[in-house]
Write a structure and sequence with these properties.
The structure is a single chain. This protein is an alpha+beta fold. It has 2 domains: 169 residues, no CATH class; 186 residues, Orthogonal Bundle (hpI Integrase, Chain A), CATH 1.10.443.10. Helix content is 45%, strand content 10%. It has 15 helices and 9 strands. A 4-stranded antiparallel β-sheet has the order 1-2-3-4, covered by helices on one side. Strands 5-6-9 form a 3-stranded antiparallel β-sheet, with no helix packed on it. A two-stranded antiparallel sheet has the order 7-8. β7 and β8 form a beta hairpin. α2 packs antiparallel against α3. It is globular, with a radius of gyration of 32 Å. The C terminus is likely disordered. This is Site-specific integrase.
């Protein structure tokens, strides 16, 4: 029988039967010592699985039922076992692969904190202890807040499956996210960086092109690293953002069309200078055997750039330019700052250019950059009002209105003679 593995543990595709099949182990029977195995091509309603994802959901439910009634009864289930065998397989079916990988380390932090503690023994005090630990450990407020929210969701899933009666985390105050500020470069700082790069060197030419592309388009890090030359239309002077790079290293990567938001698939217009910089880099690539339609734009080896490399490039030239360093995503913020502070571009246009799901997202992240964006209003109203005042008061106060006056006391003629 030709069985093809899937990304889900215990879920396979039977090529001959053209059906999805589940084959899982439910551990060892504590009485007989035999392994409990489940092998089926149908769900609880005796219907064939419609997809690999549906089959995996079936697996999660079946394991939950076994753990509650078999060797891992609810009273014995430890937190780390629940996370590994229940929550992670479930969570993986609800988010995109890159989101799962991004959140995995945080979930491990939570799992390791509670470890072998039984689910039923996690009470309000333990939850509060975890909250205090997050505050004191040294994480950024936004990261700590995210971990605590994730912990709440884990316990909510345990409640949903019947391992605990209620979620004690709901009785503990959530952690504030704080104000996350992403450092960025101003126009002058960006110009100082470019002035340090010698484009006669192939690698430095790549660095020059990469920094320009990010600063002048505001693309997400993995959107730009996924670009092929066929995604750039030099005649129309625009880039088609339609892929995202899922990458661990230069040997393990995937160019995916599964973008962060539905609006992330977009066209970005290019200015003439950026077009010429990209043309020059493409010509340079051709000299070293690249520059074809399906070659990565940001590459000089044929392999895509990785985020850590981009960060090192930024740090190197920031030091040479004697300015502060920024994160790779700081180049996206730099682009927005440039559009707002130099041209006062309206938020809707910026939102579409960035590929945000809504203008509200853009405003929430970048509203603080509009601090001086109303200068044109001040310039417009300048000198339009005739500011004048009366030389004497025309108001006669009545009633209880009273103004205390600083007056000089009257001096009588008698006092004057005495003096």
């Amino acid at each position: 029988m030709a069985m093809k593995k899937s990304k889900y543990t215990g879920v396979y595709y039977d090529k001959e039967a053209d059906k999805v099949q589940v084959q899982i182990s439910l551990g060892t029977d504590p009485v007989t010592g035999k392994r409990n195995r489940l092998k089926t091509m149908v769900d609880e309603n005796n219907k064939p699985f419609s997809s690999l994802t549906e089959a995996n959901k079936f697996v999660v439910v079946q394991k939950a039922k076994y753990f509650k009634t078999g060797a891992y009864a609810a009273s014995k289930m430890s937190f780390d076992t629940f996370v590994d065998n229940e929550y992670l397989p479930h969570y993986k079916t609800t988010v995109k692969p890159q989101t799962y990988e991004h959140k995995l380390n945080g979930i491990k932090v939570i799992r390791n904190f509670f470890g072998k503690r039984k689910l039923k023994d996690i009470d309000v005090k333990l939850v509060n202890d975890f909250r205090i630990w997050l505050v004191n450990y040294g994480y950024k407020p936004s990261y700590s807040s995210g971990l605590f929210s994730t912990f709440k969701r884990i316990l909510s899933f345990a409640e949903q499956l019947g391992y605990i009666q209620d979620n004690p985390a709901h009785k503990v105050k959530a952690l504030p996210k704080g104000k996350a500020k992403v450092a960025f470069w101003t126009k002058k700082e960006f110009e100082k960086v470019l002035a340090q790069i010698c484009i006669d060197d192939v690698y430095e030419h790549l660095n020059y092109t990469m920094l320009t592309l990010y600063f002048m388009t505001g693309m997400r890090v993995n959107e730009a690293t996924a670009l092929y030359w066929e995604d750039i239309d030099f005649k129309r002077k625009q880039i088609h953002v339609c892929h995202n790079l899922l990458i661990k290293n230069q040997k393990e990567f995937e160019r995916s069309d599964d973008l962060k938001t539905t609006n992330a698939n977009r066209f970005i217009s290019l200015d003439d200078t950026t077009v010429e910089i990209l043309r020059a880099w493409k010509d340079k690539q051709k000299e070293i055997g690249l520059g074809h339609k399906k070659d990565f734009v940001l590459s000089f080896t044929g392999k895509p750039l990785i985020k850590s490399t981009i960060s090192r490039i930024i740090k190197r030239y920031a030091a040479l330019a004697n300015i502060h360093s920024i994160q790779a995503k700081g180049l996206r913020h730099s682009h927005v700052s440039y559009l707002i502070n130099e041209f006062n571009i309206e938020i809707l246009k910026i939102s579409k250019r960035l590929g945000h799901s809504s203008p509200e997202i853009t405003y929430r992240h970048y509203a603080h950059l509009y601090a001086g964006a109303d200068r044109d209003i001040a310039n417009e109203i300048n000198g339009t009002i005739n500011f004048s005042s009366s030389k004497e008061s025309n108001v006669h106060f009545q009633g209880n209105q009273f103004i205390k006056k600083n007056t000089v006391p009257e001096v009588s003629p008698k006092d004057t003679k005495t003096a």
